[in-house]
Amino acid sequence: MKKIKVMITLCLLLLSGCSASNEIVDELALISAIGFDLTDDNKLQGTITVPNFQSDKTVTTEVFTETGTLIQEIEAKLNSEANQPLAIGKLEVILYNEKVAKQGIRKMKDVFVRDPSVGSRARMAVVEGNTKDVLTREYWTHGAGLYLAEMFDQNFINGRMPQSNIHLFTFALYSKGMDPFLPLVSVGKMVKINQIALFKEDKYVGKLPEDKTFTFHAMKDNFQDATYMIKKEQGEVSAAVNNIMSTRTVDFGENIKDPKITINIRLEGILREFKTEEEVDKQKVNKIEKQMEDQMEQEAKEIIQTLQELNVDPLGLGNKYRGLNRNFDEKKWDEMYKDLDITANVNVIIREFGIRR
Amino acid sequence: MGKHVPDYFKISPFLTFFLITAVQVGVGILSFQSIIVEPAGYDAWISIIIASIGVHILIFMMYKILNQEEHKDIFDIQTMLFGKWIGKSLGVITCVYFLLMSFVALRLYIEIIQVWMFPQISLLVVGTVFLLLVLYIINGGFKVIAGICFLGVVIPLYLILTLIFPLEFAYYDNLKPVLNHSVIELLLSAQKMTLSYLGFSTLFVYYPFLKEPKKTQKFAHFGVAFTTFLYVSTAIVSFLFYDEEQIKTVIWPTLGIWKIIEMPFVERFEYIGISSWTLVILPNITLTLWASSRGMKRMFNVNQRKTLIVYAIIIITVMLTVRGFDNIDKISELVTRFGFYYVFVYIPVLCIIHFIFQKVRESK
């Protein structure tokens, strides 16, 4: 009797493994990046890259492209081309072409949020030009997906780009007092992540150019480790400040009903390179500090103007305001936002200028 | 009836702490956030504390009744107060309630496994393996069950560290302004929250198994306080992590939080989390199933092992016949609503009736 019991238990425990489907990593095509374009007849075109690991440690990238109206439809079509079942669990990068992003990407993001196997850290970006072009390039020995993922990450960590991923985008999309933004990838000789794509709801409405990215980041988040270029009037770079630590606070003024918003930015950095014949001394440093403050405040002014013209609030000022105002009304805020008095107040402190006099 | 539980079957007073916490924390903690934010928004963490105070009062009442009737459990007390027929009918209802509770816990856990890990996994196989384990534990007696409850709290406790990772994306303005909802909204949330505290009424059944039962009251209160701590910290971290509108669209916010965790050795943490959750669910099912079969034994003198086998067959059959997630949700809602009335209406009423009974008995 006891033996039978043991046998039954063993059978149940061991055989239960057979009921789950066999999904072995080596026998799956793990999608690492996915891109969406529009074809000429307004159909959605999906491009995926699958890294193919070779025995000599190099990675070749397989690219598949199909068109369709639903993402699942594209995936089904792609599966009929791939030699191994496609799996989405290691998805790192999701790219949207500008035209696709202009039509709204809520549905196209929802597919990935709904799927439990996609991580919340998957990076999203808008591409100026064809995403297929970005995904089919050669990136040394890396696969396209992995290369792009690492490129995004190092720009986030070093403060050149405000952090964004699928979770943060969803957060901002649902949030009452914030609009989403995404990195904007420009395609030239090299693929660069250097601009900001602004969204109203889920639609791409405008962008901030490369030289505004730093100031935008400083207005949005605290960060460290970035570099800022100070320009003379002619647009030529005259000095560079490194290892910047930036903190920001938002002040709504005394009357909460009629807010006067000041974004206080405090930057601490190190001066490393400057284009001048003179010796560096305290006075000179003070002058550079002042120059940087003026330049950033000017840029901030232009950024705020762009944001208010487009009526988008990627800085999350609405959320801050909701936190202070008990009778927050989303509609009222939306109407108010365009004409709000928003200024940036930048305070630059240069801590040192290297190990030479 | 009337036979006392021998001393060598009894457990140390401090284990009450684990019995209470183990049965309260279950599948609920994976999904309670999106339910409680509906009335009170992000002030709902206050409602968790309000609900907890309610549970503390109920535990106090339960001890008030039980302490005066040494060596007796709910089934004896009900027959004593209401007579044989009504008492036993109430007892059967209690047993069915506990049985349904264990069914819901098991079914919801398997649903999570199906949605998150293995969509094709067979209900029959997982259910049978799980129930075999549960029957095996109950077969070892109440001491073993208490031991499983202890392990079911201590081992998964490391999961509390996972609440640190999502703070990378914490948005602290989410919680402000505090107390921006009316008292009624807070209470509505608190009512939804009580569902996550259910299960502590099993204390009515295992009370005779406690050594020096009067001393266990403080451990029971500690147990509820610890559960509250777990719920409040989970809720606050999720509130910082999700936007208020966003969290309403998420079915399992706690599992969603785990999705953001990335470690060098594991790409996605929720697989480890869900697997570890087996140890949280196990004492849940074990204790309620034991309480239900114990009731049958106390009232009708049937063999507990035979009852359990019948129970297991019932659970498997119901599981295989009731398909579709909305039907399961309906059952679970029914059980939790019944549980709410059982706990918040029946226990106070029982306490009052018992108090009157006591006075009458004394005056005689």
From TrEMBL, chain A:
Bilayer topology: Lipid-anchor
Chain coiled-coil ranges: 282-313
Limits of the Spore germination protein N-terminal domain: 24-186
GO BP: any one term: spore germination
Keyword Repeat: no
InterPro entries named in the record: GerAC_N, Spore_GerAC-like, Spore_GerAC-like_C, Spore_GerAC_C_sf
Domain Spore germination GerAC-like C-terminal: 195-354
Compartments it resides in: Membrane
Pfam families: Spore_GerAC, Spore_GerAC_N
A GO term from the CC aspect: membrane
Signal peptide annotation: 1-21
Swiss-Prot/TrEMBL keywords: Coiled coil, Germination, Lipoprotein, Membrane, Palmitate, Signal
Family label: Belongs to the GerABKC lipoprotein family.
Name under which the protein is recorded: Ger(X)C family spore germination protein
Organism: Salinibacillus xinjiangensis
From TrEMBL, chain B:
Coiled-coil regions, chain positions: none
Record's subcellular location: Membrane
GO biological process: spore germination
Lineage of origin: Bacteria, Bacillati, Bacillota, Bacilli, Bacillales
Membrane topology, as annotated: Multi-pass membrane protein
Pfam families associated with the record: Spore_permease
GO cellular component: membrane
Protein name: GerAB/ArcD/ProY family transporter
Domain of life: Bacteria
Record organism: Salinibacillus xinjiangensis
Residue spans crossing the bilayer: 12-32, 44-63, 90-110, 116-138, 145-166, 186-207, 219-242, 271-292, 308-326, 338-357
Family: Belongs to the amino acid-polyamine-organocation (APC) superfamily. Spore germination protein (SGP) (TC 2.A.3.9) family.
Keyword Transmembrane: yes
Record's keyword terms, sorted: Germination, Membrane, Transmembrane, Transmembrane helix, Transport
